[in-house]
Q: What sequence folds into this?
C-alpha cells in the first residue's frame, strides 16, 4: 500500500545518556543509526546490519469482541464510524507499514472490517493478549516480515508518526526485540491502574512497567518536578522473537501486574522506548467514548 501522511503534533524522540533525568530526551530515530550492541545472550536474532535490516514491516490491529470492561468495544460507534475503522484509517497513514491487517476471533468484527476495506486474519479465541494474537496472525501470513507492529484498536486517535517512530526505533536497535512508546503522565492519572507507568535507563531501554506509580518516593506523593512516563499501547516486535513469545512461560511480575511487557523483560530481552508528545485517549470503558467524540469535535476530526 502507499499511505499518505498527515501532519500532527507528535514528535518521536529517544532517550539520551545525559546524567540528569531532565535531559533524557534526544533525537534518536534516524533509521540505521548505530546503537551499541549488547551482550545479547538472550537475543535470538542476528545483529548483523545491512541496508535491508528489518525492512519489511506489517501492522496488525488485534481486536476481540469479548471484554470484561467493555463488551463489543471494537464496534462501538465513534462519531458514526466503528472504533476499529477509526483505528484502521489512522494506521493506514503510517509510512513505515508495508501491509496492514485486523486480527480477530469474531465474525461480527471481521464482517464490519471487510465492509470498509480492511484485510482480516481470523485468529483463535485462546489468545490471551494482543501480542499472542499478533503472533498467531503473523504465522498465517504468506509473506515474510521482519517487524510486526501491534496497533491498539482502542486508541482511535493514535498519530501515524508514532507508529513510524516505534518501527524506526527497533530498526536502529539491533540488540532489542521489542520497541514501544511513552508520553508524559498527567498528575491526575498517577493513581489510575489503567494508566500503565514506565521507567527507562539512560540509553532508552525499558527497566520496568507498573500499574502503580513508579518511581515511588518516601512521601508517597507525586513529585511535580519528576517526568513520570505513561506507557502507550503501540509496540513493535522483531518477527522472529514474536514467533517464540507465546512459548515463553508466564513470569511472576507479568502475572502480578497483568502486563505482557514484563514477560519480555523478565526473560532477559531488551525493549527500546521512545518518548513522544501524545495526549493519550484510549477507550477503556463506555464513558470514554463521549470524551473521544468531544475531543474529535474540538479538533474538527470527522
A:
Amino acid at each position: 500500500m502507499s499511505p499518505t501522511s498527515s501532519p500532527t503534533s507528535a514528535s518521536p524522540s529517544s532517550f539520551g545518556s545525559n546524567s540528569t533525568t531532565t535531559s533524557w530526551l534526544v533525537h534518536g530515530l534516524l533509521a540505521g543509526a548505530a546503537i551499541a550492541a549488547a551482550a545479547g545472550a538472550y537475543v535470538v536474532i542476528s545483529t548483523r546490519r545491512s541496508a535491508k535490516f528489518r525492512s519489511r514491516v506489517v501492522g496488525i490491529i488485534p481486536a476481540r469482541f469479548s471484554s470484561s470492561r467493555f463488551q463489543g468495544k471494537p464496534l462501538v460507534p465513534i462519531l458514526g464510524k466503528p472504533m476499529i475503522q477509526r483505528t484502521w484509517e489512522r494506521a493506514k497513514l503510517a509510512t513505515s507499514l508495508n501491509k496492514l491487517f485486523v486480527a480477530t476471533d469474531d465474525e461480527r468484527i471481521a464482517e464490519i472490517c471487510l465492509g470498509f476495506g480492511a484485510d482480516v486474519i481470523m485468529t483463535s479465541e485462546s489468545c490471551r493478549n494482543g501480542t499472542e494474537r499478533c503472533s498467531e496472525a503473523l504465522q498465517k501470513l504468506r509473506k515474510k516480515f521482519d517487524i510486526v507492529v501491534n496497533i491498539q484498536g482502542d486508541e482511535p486517535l493514535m498519530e501515524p508518526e508514532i507508529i513510524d517512530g516505534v518501527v524506526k526505533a527497533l530498526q536502529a536497535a539491533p540488540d532489542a526485540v521489542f520497541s514501544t512508546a511513552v508520553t508524559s503522565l498527567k498528575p491526575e492519572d498517577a493513581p489510575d491502574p489503567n494508566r500503565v507507568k514506565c521507567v527507562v535507563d539512560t540509553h532508552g531501554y525499558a527497566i520496568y512497567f507498573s500499574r502503580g506509580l513508579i518511581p515511588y518516593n518516601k512521601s508517597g506523593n507525586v513529585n511535580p518536578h519528576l517526568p513520570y512516563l505513561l506507557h502507550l499501547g503501540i509496540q513493535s516486535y522483531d518477527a522472529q522473537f514474536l514467533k517464540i513469545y507465546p512459548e515463553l512461560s508466564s513470569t511472576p511480575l507479568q502475572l502480578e501486574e497483568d502486563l505482557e511487557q514484563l514477560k519480555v523483560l523478565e526473560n532477559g530481552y531488551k525493549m527500546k522506548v521512545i518518548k513522544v508528545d501524545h495526549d493519550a485517549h484510549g477507550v477503556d470503558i463506555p464513558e470514554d467514548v463521549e470524551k473521544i467524540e468531544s475531543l474529535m469535535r474540538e479538533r474538527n476530526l470527522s
User: Anything to note?
Assistant: The CA atoms of residues 66 and 123 lie 14 Å apart.
